[in-house]
## 1
Amino acid sequence: MVDWEGKVALIQCAKAMGIQKYVFYSIHNCEKHPEVPLMEIKYCTEKFLKDSGLTHIIIQLCGFMQGLIGQYAVPIVGEKSVWGTDAPTRIAYMDTQDIARLTFIAFRNENISGKILTFAGPRAWTTQEVITLCERLAGQDANVATVPVSVLRFTWQLIRFFEWTNDVADRLAFSEVISLY
């Protein structure tokens, strides 16, 4: 709720200040996953921004390559466990520097104001492919703990009704996203 209220206040403030162009980073396909709180907030913010009258660009991102370093590469090199699922989900990760460059180009192009752009890397990767690449580059095998998506989904269904588990339930809601692709 705080995230949503903050986004609304920021857009309203930008409009009141006469900001010339507003750039909003969203998540690719967020409109397809209203059961995932973060995805719902992103989609609702997209709609609010469109209705605000502000000149804007919405950039939907697939995934950040830099996140893979801490999630997979560092643990593999440090001989720690990495976690994955059995889902065949593919994500077209991008370097944040490339996202910044493309954003700057989009920002300067007047013909794309009011548009939704999707930024995606040149190749989509499964979790297992990322782990295999990290193993090859590290020159060692990973200790991989695989959690079936069905277990994540069941756990989410079980704990989402308890207030004290809301944060965990919100993260587990992504099991619905990864199970659809």
## 2
Amino acid sequence: MAWMYLVLAGVLEVVWAYTMKLSAGFTQLGYSAITLVAMTASFGLLAVAMKSLPLGTAYTIWTGIGAVGAFVVGILVLGEAASPLRILAALLIVGGLVLMKLAS
């Protein structure tokens, strides 16, 4: 169950990063509210997952899901560049996440 909480926390990290971008520096009330709710839920689920998962593993997986997820949303939704070097960097992060999971 801790892994499910952790994955959901990571997905919510992507949500709050995206809505923070849409909030235009917290000047758009609706997106700002979604950001704060998603952020709070993400941290809460991370905390619950950390009850039974090692700190290093949980935090690395959480930030990795957030980083790669935000990267993908940036490309697919916001039209950001998908250069070969950026894609390689994201693949290296995913590889690190897989190794972290295997090591725990």
## 3
Amino acid sequence: MSPDAPTRASLLAEVRRLESALARAQGALRALGGETVPGGHLLVEAAGRRALLPAARVVEVVRLVAFTPLPDAPPHVLGSFVCRGAPVCAMDLAALLGAPREPSLDAQIAVIAGVPAVGLVVDRVERLVESPRLFEGDVTAGTPEAWRGSTLVAGLCVEQGEVLPLLDPAPLLAAVAGSGG
């Protein structure tokens, strides 16, 4: 390796910096308002709770797999698995919202880009929603009760008359990165 070649640690630091910059830019776009949130968003459901997850943050959606338990992990952390040669920390969205349950065999995992990656376990990914319309009412009153107080909610959108939280996976990625993976 040449002395100028980037090290794994420096590349990981750069990825984390870019993820943080992306999250800030997305937040700034939401703060500016407008009629829609640009880009595609996955409409996901977990324990009857529906939300929009930015598709740009998702590497792929995979079927439920077996997890390797992680010692002393909180109840929403189901364990880890390997996806395309990289470790992924699996977190149950329903448990994060206070509805712990055993995911069904039909559950899906939205693998979210990050270092390390996070696999968000959901009951289903319903469809892709292009440029959802922003909710224009009182955000506090408009937030569905199951999502109130969740650090994952970055904003609200309206899709086919339903107010849906727009999720920001950054807190999950930060928690996994902070725990050492």
